[in-house]
Amino acid sequence: MAPRNLEADEREETRAGESSRRDLVVDVICVVAAFALPLGFWIALALGHDVAQKPLQRIDLVLATLAAPLVWWRRRWPMTMSIVVSVIASVSTLAAVPQAITLITVAIRCRPRLVVAATAVFVVTGSIFSVVQPNPTLPLWAAVLAVVLIAGILVAWGSFIKARRALVDSLRDRARRAEDEQSLRIEQARQLERTRIAREMHDVLAHRISLLSLHAGALEFRPDAPPDEIAKAAGVIRTSAHQALQELRDVIGVLRAPNGGEADRDRPQPTLGDVPALVTEARRAGATIDLDVRVDDPAAVPAVIGRTTYRIVQEGLTNARKHARGAAVRVTVSGDQGDGLTVEVRNWLPLRAETSQIPGAGTGIIGLGERVGLAGGHLEHGPSTAGDFRLKAWLPWTT
To answer: Where is the Signal transduction histidine kinase subgroup 3 dimerisation and phosphoacceptor domain (predicted)?
Structure first.
């Protein structure tokens, strides 16, 4: 797997920062909730209200006040804080809120066996409280049953939060992996396209350089040749060198894969003149294609531009067969020297067009854009305002 890009790392850091801030807010709210009851009693006592007349009630208030701040450390030591607060709650009514908060935290952050242990402590201490401070209107068995039900509700709530967080984390992880894999596929598609271009350019440059070597060798071995033959050979050398340099400029920056493509070197490279044959072949397969080539001299089109034009038409016809099988296609090639060459492939989308079952990876257009960019042009693709799909490229055609 390729290393993740900076954008993904920044998004991850942003999510981590947001999570930390959210946890801090939740911690503050929990501590405030835990302090709410004992703080109210302390305020009432300060105002002169005797709300804690019995010694046991004063002990209850003091223990609840000591239990409230323990909520702050419940994330670091969830099991310990839950047991300590539950023990305090066995003799303190006002400690019920921090006891519930710590049990929910255990259900969220701990393994099932620890959750069962914390729940058992909760039930036992709650039962002890029912014995220490019995409710005169409620039998002991009913009070214990109520404690069990409350513990079950709290654990269920914490388990739900835990499952939801796990689901969200799983979806985020899957989305991140899909994004990384898509970036990797795009990069691989670009590299493969650069490799294919490098192979094609090797054929062209090898041809140009072999011509240079041939004519330079003739001049070397026949220095006494007639002046017109020497001038002719020098002109061929100059033209071939100029064309070779032009081809080389088009392929600067393209990396060629090692030990690859030896079998493709003998394959003839397509040109603009091969486009009609490509369309004819597609028509034989059943496609309805309207071809319009408005170029005065197709042979004058540079090899790189002609080859790129061929690939654009090829990709457009392939996409039409994949995504709009049976739909009519119109191919237009127009331009001249100085203005550049415009290539456009449109496929109409009838209401009941037969679609192909051929899967597409979505990297053909990416590779084509890389090829057009290296040729010095630009590529456009997508639905047009007329309701059809358009693949359009402009390629430079200098004099």
So the answer is: 193-258
